Amino acid sequence: MFVWDFIVSVLSWMGLFKKEVRLLLLGLDNAGKTTLLRMLEWHNGTAQPYLSTWFQLDFFFVEEITIGKLKLVTFDIGGHQQACKVWRDYYPAVNALVFVIDACDKQHLPESKLELDLILSDELLKYHPVLILGNKVDLPGAASKQQLFNDLGLNYSVSGKDKTTHSQLESHPVELYMCSILNRHGYEEGFEWLCQYID
Ligand SMILES: Nc1nc2c(ncn2[C@@H]2O[C@H](COP(=O)(O)OP(=O)(O)OP(=O)(O)O)[C@@H](O)[C@H]2O)c(=O)[nH]1
Ligand SMILES: [Mg+2]
Fold first, then answer.
1. Phi, psi of 186 (to 5 degrees)
2. ipTM of the complex, rounded to two decimals
3. Quick one: signal sequence residues (predicted)?
């Protein structure tokens, strides 16, 4: 079943995105992906009903949500190694990626780095913008932005929050935003940043 055929849509969340976009939401277990989906639904208010659909794809569950004109897709597959294989099959069908990291779960940062490295080094994804959300900054003990930068080895790959145009970049734009999805703080700026790279 080609579940991706209907992912293409127009993202109009909060009026920030008015472009056609297919967005893939990734991250390890417990990072905050589902919470982000629920928050996007909350931002949408009750004006437009949303639809949440689950698909089973081999051993994995796929959740696609439709909020008004926005369609987002995520996997309930956690950070297991075989997940990469599944994500990869979806790369050609998406315009941008959002990678959520639990900034408090320092023990699993190396695992996040591994997943992220695979994404960032993938030829198929060379020009895809990647928004990294360092989540749960509301909790004591959350890694600082600098620490995440270092631990994820991002120092030389992020594009910076300037207005470097997509065509000026040698590779895909990557940026890290710290946030608390639960407190609805920090991720909107990240989506605004992402928006500028979606042609
Ligand atoms: N303190 C705090 N907790 C958060 C935040 N975002 C998510 N959580 C909590 O983290 C836990 C995991 O969040 P989920 O959204 O279920 O994580 P997930 O990435 O969907 O996890 P999987 O479905 O297992 O891959 C939940 O208990 C959330 O309430 C945040 O910003 N701050
Ligand atoms: Mg989830």
1. 95, -25
2. 0.99
3. none
Q: Give per-residue pLDDT as tens, 132-159.
A: 999 999 999 999 999 999 999 986 556 6
CB of 103 closer than 6 A to ligand 1?
no
CA of 118 to the centre of ligand 2 (A): 21
Rounded CA-CA distance 77/61 in Å is 7
Which residue has 């935003």 as its token pair? 177
Nearest CA to ligand 1 atom 11: 30
Pocket test for ligand 1, best of 35, 115, 179, 188 (most atoms within 8 A of CB): 35
CATH class of 3-195: alpha beta
Nearest CA to ligand 1 atom 9: 32
**What are the respective helix, strand and coil percentages of the chain, to the nearest 5?**
35, 25, 40
The predicted model scores a pTM of: 0.81
